[in-house]
TrEMBL record:
The chain crosses the membrane at residues 33-55, 61-79, 91-112, 118-139, 144-162, 168-187. It comes from Chryseolinea serpens. This is Uncharacterized protein. The lineage of its organism: Bacteria, Pseudomonadati, Bacteroidota, Cytophagia, Cytophagales. Keywords: Membrane, Transmembrane, Transmembrane helix.
């Protein structure tokens, strides 16, 4: 058997796995901008909707139009980020597809919101728990795991409390689930 054909030792296999996990952690940390962007946009929309509900504005949902520029900015940032020849691991691809599927689910919920009498906030919060928590598990980052759990709790509470308190729970969930982890990821990236 030639040296090139030798099977990897346990130590070499473990080193490769560790390197790939660390690379994935670094890649996700570089993407902290998405947590900060979406956390800020969704928190602002939720707080604005709450204010409009309190003011008895007839169409408080109009504030959600701010997600359109956020989507465009996200697409631009992702395109620009991909053009930089960074190495993508298998876990990076899983994470990317998980968030892409999340986006498709959210779009579908919004498109068919009438079927649930436009009571989307609890459902969206519950669905948001999954990719947030799993991103935390993938990179072993406790603030994202806690954020995912917070999304679940706020989603369940939204069913119980109902409107107009749902937007406040949504703002709390994205603050704990996206903004705080995004800031902490940014700090870790710069350290």
């Amino acid at each position: 058997m030639k040296p090139d054909d030798e099977a990897l030792t346990t130590k070499q296999s473990l080193a490769i796995i560790t390197e790939m996990i660390n690379l994935t952690k670094g890649n996700i940390r570089n993407n902290s901008v998405y947590f900060l962007l979406w956390g800020s946009v969704i928190a602002l929309a939720n707080l604005s909707m709450f204010a409009l509900l309190m003011a008895h504005y007839p169409r408080p949902y109009i504030v959600w139009i701010i997600v359109i520029p956020a989507w465009l900015l996200t697409l631009y940032l992702a395109y620009r980020h991909r053009r930089k020849h960074r190495m993508a691991t298998h876990l990076d691809r899983i994470n990317m597809w998980m968030w892409l599927c999340f986006g498709v689910v959210i779009f579908t919920l919004v498109a068919f919101g009438k079927a649930v009498n436009y009571q989307l906030n609890p459902i969206i919060l519950l669905v948001s728990a999954l990719p947030t928590l799993l991103s935390g598990v993938i990179i072993k980052f406790r603030p994202l795991i806690v954020g995912g759990i917070c999304f679940w709790i706020c989603g369940a509470l939204s069913f119980v409390l109902g409107s107009p308190w749902q937007p406040l729970l949504g703002a709390l969930a994205v603050t704990v689930g996206y903004i705080i982890p995004g800031i902490l990821l940014r700090i870790k990236k710069e350290a």
